[in-house]
């Protein structure tokens, strides 16, 4: 395969992926709406592209690292989108968290143009993306994997191959998001109770992270609460979307998800209260009568 690869979307995960590909020796082209991010990318040895079409004209493998299905459609099929510029037998690696049905339909739409799709949502956060150690939940036909081998090896520490059917990777990702969202909501609830009861929050964090109640999300997100820093690494509104996808998928088969529904309502409350763009740990702000670290009220 060509050593030229394109990355559409240089957000927290996308920038890390682009860095990992550069480090692995790829000629990396990338586009993003933010000129300052592209300038930084160029200084690190990357090649900025003005739009997805320009990027796709020179890349056989294109990775989309955007937020949702609408953004995926826009960068692939919208004005100056990548798909019309892609040569036949090219590959799209789609990494957004989307409904499994959307991933399946995207694969069919691309196949009509002779383009391969790898349904490949990602997990692990910005730090693991930058170190090439994130987790990928992938599905797609053998021809897509054949084009993707070297790229996947540079992007991720773990690449799970979940079948030939597009949508299988997205199903596993939304189940992961079910747990991630519930764990963040439960972590916020636990810390809110501790604060309400007058427990020292730093001591509570220390105890829980060395006890059976710990989770990866508790250990990763509670420090944001302790610092009073809600700079978004993953925003509240991401979990409004992702838990919504979880519930929509389960609704299709009439499957009850009571904990997911409760967590979704918590993130919805936080978003409605004006915290949608803050770090997802800001879901703790929905609890009344609690003075948070770094807050005067």
TrEMBL record:
GO molecular function, one term: oxidoreductase activity, acting on the CH-OH group of donors, NAD or NADP as acceptor
Domain (3-hydroxyisobutyrate dehydrogenase-like NAD-binding): residue spans on this chain: 167-286
Keyword NADP: yes
Reactions that this protein is recorded to catalyse: L-threonate + NAD(+) = 2-dehydro-L-erythronate + NADH + H(+)
EC code: 1.1.1.411
6-phosphogluconate dehydrogenase NADP-binding domain boundaries: 4-163
Source species, domain of life: Bacteria
Keyword terms of this UniProt record: Carbohydrate metabolism, NAD, NADP, Oxidoreductase
Catalytic residue positions: 173
Cited InterPro entries: 6-PGluconate_DH-like_C_sf, 6PGD_dom2, 6PGDH_NADP-bd, HIBADH-like_NADP-bd, HIBADH-related, LtnD, NAD(P)-bd_dom_sf
Annotated Pfam families: NAD_binding_11 (PF14833), NAD_binding_2 (PF03446)
SUPFAM superfamilies (UniProt xref): 6-phosphogluconate dehydrogenase C-terminal domain-like, NAD(P)-binding Rossmann-fold domains
Function: Catalyzes oxidation of L-threonate to 2-oxo-tetronate. Can use either NAD(+) or NADP(+) as cosubstrate, with a preference for NAD(+).
Classification via PANTHER family: 3-HYDROXYISOBUTYRATE DEHYDROGENASE-LIKE 1, MITOCHONDRIAL-RELATED, L-THREONATE DEHYDROGENASE
Family per record: Belongs to the HIBADH-related family. L-threonate dehydrogenase subfamily.
NCBIfam families: ThreonDh
Name listed for the protein in its UniProt record: L-threonate dehydrogenase
Taxonomic source organism: Chitinasiproducens palmae
Organism phylogeny: Bacteria, Pseudomonadati, Pseudomonadota, Betaproteobacteria, Burkholderiales
